[in-house]
Amino acid sequence: MACKRKQWRSTGKGLVLGILLTSCTILIYCLSSAQILFSHPELPVPYSCAHRPSQLRPKLIANSSQQTTEPTCTPKVDIMFMKTHKTASSTFLNILFRFGEKHRLKFAFPNSRNDFFYPSLFQRSQVKDYRPGMCFNIICNHMRFNAPEVTKLLPMDTSYITILRDPAELFESSFHYFGRLAPFTWKIPGDDKLTEFLRDPHYYFDPDGFNAFYLKNLLFFDFGQDNTQELDDPRVEEGIRSITDRFQLVMLVEYFEESLILLKEALCWEMDDLLFFKLNARKGSTVSKLTPELRAKALEWNAVDWKLYQHFNQTFWKKVDAYGRRQMAQDVAELRRRNVEMASICIEGGRAVEAGSIQETAMQPWQPMGEKSIMGYNLKKNVDKAHRKLCRKMLMPELQYLTELGVNLWITKLWGHVRDVINW
């Protein structure tokens, strides 16, 4: 009898959650997808939106034999960061948020959620309080890139920056994080769904399925391209060429600190601007270790992303060579030393902890559906006054920081409540 009651309770709970999930998903989808695309008058964008000259500083030019000093340069403040998925981009966003606050810059933020109606192509009408002729310094939230609309929003001197990740590792992370949101994965049998999917991806993958884009050539899709193209399709080369022509710096997750040093050089920033703690990291037990065979299959399945990554891996190391390998090693060592110093000042225990061990609700990161695999931090007690504000900012998860910057995230928060119920 007790067994039957338990079975009925489980069935009833499933029905309630199913109905709630379906209703809320439809509501959120309608609210987030039904956009009214206004016809804005075409006004020329300004050359620059730097509202005041920043303090000039000597620019050190490094090479293998010596350092020389060129005339002073001005930190660049007009920035488009193309935030790709599962690429440590939340960590870089924290850097941008702090830089923007330091220089009192104007962000182009989305309205009611934390992305620009992704996966729809970006439209400037999606920017909070947008009016033609407005000046924006930084745009950095998730979007599906749409160059014509972005260029009509940002000043002409904007620096375009983005970041890529090894596609096999990205696919593993995306499959873990977004897999439950793609219904075609629900029919994959067994506990190791990733391995089973890669055994015969064409059998399981539905290119027209809901959220299917998360699980094939996600990087190429984020850049506004067709992620289902075959590798030999000439549009793949055209897409890579258009990204190359648009973005001045393409960073690599695997060489994040080297990427930041190149950023500092390109934008005339200070080392202080680059300090960071790794945000949105998964606990190790949830990361699937890819065997050489699985890695090869993941790269084959994401062949377009692999071609994109290989192209920018080459351009990245050319920039490192131009900067000077010896100087790069010294600067990376200095950045790491500064980050370790900040961790000792800011972080209780000196390291990230699992979600259940995070003491402040305000420090809880967003979690994937059905589990709590994303780690976070505890702010050290009795941090000295000189570092207290900086420490809190550096440790603050993305959604909380967006809220502090004035973004209304009611749709994102509503979805968060639905997920909490589902995890009940």
The overall strand count is 6
Order of helices and strands: HEEEHEHEHHHHHEHHHHHHH
Radius of gyration (Å): 23 Å
Terminal Cα span: 24 Å
Name the shape in a single word: globular
**Main beta sheet: strand number and arrangement?**
4 strands, parallel
Q: Which structural class do the helices and strands define?
A: alpha/beta
Low-confidence stretches: 10-19, 25-34, 62-66
Bin the helical content: 40-55%
Q: DSSP strand (E) fraction?
A: 5-15%
Could you tell me the mean pLDDT?
Answer: 86
Q: Main sheet: which strands, in order across?
A: 4-3-5-6
How many individual helices? 15
Characterise this structure.
By secondary structure, the chain is α/β, with parallel strands linked by helices. The protein has helices at 2-33, 89-102, 147-151, 167-178, 193-199, 201-204, 218-222, 234-246, 256-267, 292-301, 303-323, 325-346, 385-395, 398-404, 410-422, and strands at 57-62, 67-73, 79-82, 138-139, 159-164, 249-252. The strands form two sheets. It has a four-stranded parallel beta sheet. Strands 1-2 form a two-stranded antiparallel sheet. Strand 3, helix 2 and strand 4 (138-139) form a beta-alpha-beta unit. Helix 10 crosses helix 11. The radius of gyration is 23 Å and the shape is globular. Mean pLDDT is 86; it is low at 10-19, 25-34 and 62-66.
